[in-house]
Amino acid sequence: MNALIFLVLFPLCIAGLALVVPPVLNVRRIIGVTANIVLCVVPVYLLIKYLDTGPVFFRLESPWISPLMLATEIAIALYIIYVSLRAKRTLPALLVLVQSVVMVIFEVTSGHGMHVEHSLFVDKFSIIMALIVGIIGSAICLYSIGYMPEYHHHYPEVKDRRRYFGFLLYLFLSAMFGIVFSNNLMWVYFFWEITTLCSFLLIGYRDDKASRDSAFKALVMNLVGGVAFAAGLVYLYHSAHTMELDKMIRLEKSY
Length: 255
What we know:
Distance between the termini: 32 Å
Strand content: under 5%
Order of helices and strands: HHEHHEHHHHH
Radius of gyration: 19 Å
Oligomer: single chain
Largest sheet: 2 strands, antiparallel
Helix content: over 70%
Mean pLDDT: 90
Strand order of the largest sheet: 1-2
Number of helices: 9
Shape: flat
């Protein structure tokens, strides 16, 4: 279980470093290479350890996890509403409002007494996905360290926010690992929300009209999926009385 938690938290720590470390190319490259090696090695370790064991489930309990996730989801929703209304785009604000109201009502009512036995898991497919995220995702982050100075050299009119860009990339990786290893569908939803926000901010990095339009188009598509995701979670819980992916699969096979 420690390796799974590490793969979620380690990119988050690198994201924090990317935000505070000065944009000195050699320093950032050292950090990027180190992160790249670690994010490639740990999934390989999981491959060696769990390839022939079948699905393995882990219990992770803390009274702070669910309230912290809910607070983060609300903060993301409020930010999206703010930037949408500021840009005079009502559709994304409306979508995220509907999505948030559905989830808050669910968590306060039915979800409040929800018991999840196993929040994390690892199996062959999740290991394959972790290898893809770790190897390809970290390689993209490493490439961007050398690419971004060249980009800003060719486009001097674009505000240089390389720290912010690196932070978003590694935050995205952290959320992707969270999606891959979550057996709790509420956790999957939480990490989905983080990827939605990161995608929106990364696409709009240039902060011109074309990039803002593209960012809001992507945001609307993700929010439509988010509304469907939220409604699906409510329906699944009231139908199957669980939020654990493995138990839902077993229930489906029993019919």
